[in-house]
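Exercise: predict the fold of this chain.
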Amino acid sequence: MNIQLKTQTSPAARSLAGRVSLVTGSTSGIGLGIARALAEAGSAVVLNGLGHAAEIVRTRDRMAEDFGVKVTYSAADMTKPEAIAGMIDTALADHGRLDVLVNNAGIQHVAPLDRFPPEKWDAILSINLTSAFHTMRLALPAMRKNGFGRIINIASAHGLVGSPFKAAYVAAKHGIIGLTRVAALETAEQGITCNAICPGYVYTPLVEAQIDGQARAHGISREQVIHDVLLAQQPNRRFATVEELGAFTVFLASDAAASITGTALPVDGGWTAH
């Protein structure tokens, strides 16, 4: 007797079919991993971020081909409110709706508080915090109109605890969590949720470069940099992956997470359990 097995796609695998997602800072690293996960779950995606134009086109086209969804790109500067407004307007014009907003764009600078350059403070607060205020305020009317919305802010373990020399980053990430809670309370009866994901160290090309730089600067091995420097605060002593963050974002964007809102959710290997 011949038995034919039919391969079927799990319903959960396309849990976001028909949705439209916008991910800021999504041309590389964490943001790109999240965007790919959303596309794999069936969502159309609007990418945003910096990079070489040809590489961005390849990234956009590859994502569309890999997952069979519409993928567009906005070069909006996250420091400019008018550019953010244009990005939201274009997303709505191109896709007809906006269901999932992931605020991931961010920059970093490390310096002692009394020597922290004011222009770096302003830039970090603008991109890491204020841009999320603008995307959220502009996306909410479309979400309210459809009676559905998922706002997912990529905060950090530094939104829950402090570290020396990261005044602006820590302040911005604490602010993102406060903004998340306000939005959750204001939209609780409207089919919209707002949550913050708080990663510890995540393995990305930028972190890889940091490992090599620290090893050279301190004259120690890569393994020592990873275990004793970068992951000193993470009890599990391993990097999170962009795939893990992508899967978590897809869950928060799904119908299954309808009752999760106003939360700051650590993905930090136990860092904030100290």
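Check your answer against the key: The chain has a mean pLDDT of 94.
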